[in-house]
């Protein structure tokens, strides 16, 4: 949701400030891109892949460079996915979209399993709010974008300033929870979708994007204050993960997420 707010704010920005003030909000950008290349080469690869660099820089504001860079990476991943009809992967390469998933049941049907007042539920799982509420392909798109987002944010911790911290982990943990609930609902109540999820090309796509997300989430757990506690709790509940585990052929969530390191990060962030 912070991306929706940041984009809206940027759209109004030109009408609200003078040219000198506008420059002060963007004059960090050359150094920020150098920092991205130095600290998060995988995030910089997304910047490099953008044919129109202005689209990336649109989201990079100087009041919070760490957030701005992570947001720019996130949004650029969406753009590249549309351009290439494939999900860019953090380690390089991409995973092709699978057209058949458009026939799967709408992800919003799983929203009832979560707090209806939660901002991630309202943004990604409510009818009319985002394509991810209606189309499983776009739920995977958001999962992938948040994986890139959190991966860059954790690498860019050296750029963080101030006493507070943005809930970088919450977005990825939320989208992982939505996907986990989706698989569980499909297994129990949506036989056509559950059968579709077993198709080799669909299963491989889910395995690829989930493994990437799990690795990024696990890598963030030693950093306190990044949020996502209630969604991590959902992910670590075995009763929620059986269907997805069957699809993956393994336990869905890394021990680093649900083990002592994850618990410590969660407790630290609750006391900040």
Structural description of this entry:
With 272 residues, the protein is an all-alpha fold. The chain has helices spanning 2-16, 19-24, 29-39, 41-49, 53-57, 65-84, 119-124, 136-155, 168-189, 191-197, 200-220, 229-235, 238-248, 255-258, 260-270; strands spanning 86-88, 94-96. Strands 1-2 form a two-stranded antiparallel sheet. Helix 3 crosses helix 4 (41-49) and helix 9 crosses helix 10 (191-197). It is globular.
Task: Tag the structure with descriptive keywords.
disordered N terminus; globular; 15 helices; 2 strands; disordered C terminus; mainly alpha; 272 residues; two-stranded antiparallel ribbon
The fraction of residues in strands falls at under 5%
Helix content: 55-70%
The helix count comes to 15
CA-CA gap between termini:
22 Å
For the largest beta-sheet, the strand count, sense and barrel status come to: 2 strands, antiparallel
In N-to-C order, the SSE pattern is HHHHHHEEHHHHHHHHH
Strand arrangement, major sheet: 1-2
Structural class: mainly alpha
Mean pLDDT: 89
Radius of gyration: 18 Å
Poorly predicted segments? 1-18, 261-272
The tally of beta strands, per DSSP, is 2
**What is the overall shape?**
globular
Brief description of this entry?
The chain is mainly alpha-helical and 272 residues long.
Write the layout of secondary structure elements.
Layout: H1 2-16, H2 19-24, H3 29-39, H4 41-49, H5 53-57, H6 65-84, E1 86-88, E2 94-96, H7 119-124, H8 136-155, H9 168-189, H10 191-197, H11 200-220, H12 229-235, H13 238-248, H14 255-258, H15 260-270
Antiparallel strand pairs: 1-2
